[in-house]
TrEMBL record:
Name of the protein this chain belongs to: AraC family transcriptional regulator
GO molecular function (one): DNA-binding transcription factor activity
Originating organism: Candidatus Acetatifactor stercoripullorum
The HTH araC/xylS-type domain, residue ranges: 1-92
Family annotation (InterPro entries): Homeodomain-like_sf, HTH_AraC, HTH_AraC-typ_CS, Tscrpt_reg_AraC-type_HTH
Residue ranges that the Swiss-Prot or TrEMBL entry lists as coiled coil: none
Upper classification of the organism: Bacteria, Bacillati, Bacillota, Clostridia, Lachnospirales
Length: 112
């Protein structure tokens, strides 16, 4: 699944591929991991997005590369889960204490 994280993953396709119901797949995933399949996929996509942004990809390129079909949805989702916009993350003005909280800081004052 991780190797297909940038694709439009659907639980229905996964269930069909393994001949199980969607409910069974979802309940087993939660039982094994403690999080929902949707949460897992989103966390993986956002982790990949942060790596792409850190390596210089544009926000648009990153959204597409991570399988987000809607640019605006990517920005909103990134900001809600990471705590800062993808553009600010890309510019390197971040110090994150954890995924839920992102403190913005301008490092230009340290280079003078």
């Amino acid at each position: 699944m991780d190797s297909h994280i940038n694709e439009d993953l659907k639980i229905s396709k996964l269930a069909q591929a393994y001949s199980y119901t969607e409910n069974y797949i979802c309940s087993q995933f939660v039982r094994q991991t403690g999080i929902t399949l949707k949460q897992y996929i989103l966390t993986k996509k956002l982790t990949l997005a942060k790596q792409f942004l850190e390596n210089g990809l544009s926000v648009t390129e990153t959204a597409e590369a991570c399988g987000f079909n809607d640019y605006t949805n990517f920005i909103r989702t990134f900001k809600n889960h990471v705590g800062c916009s993808p553009a600010k993350w890309r510019k390197g003005y971040y110090i994150c204490s954890n995924l839920a909280e992102c403190h913005i800081q301008d490092f230009s004052s340290f280079t003078k």
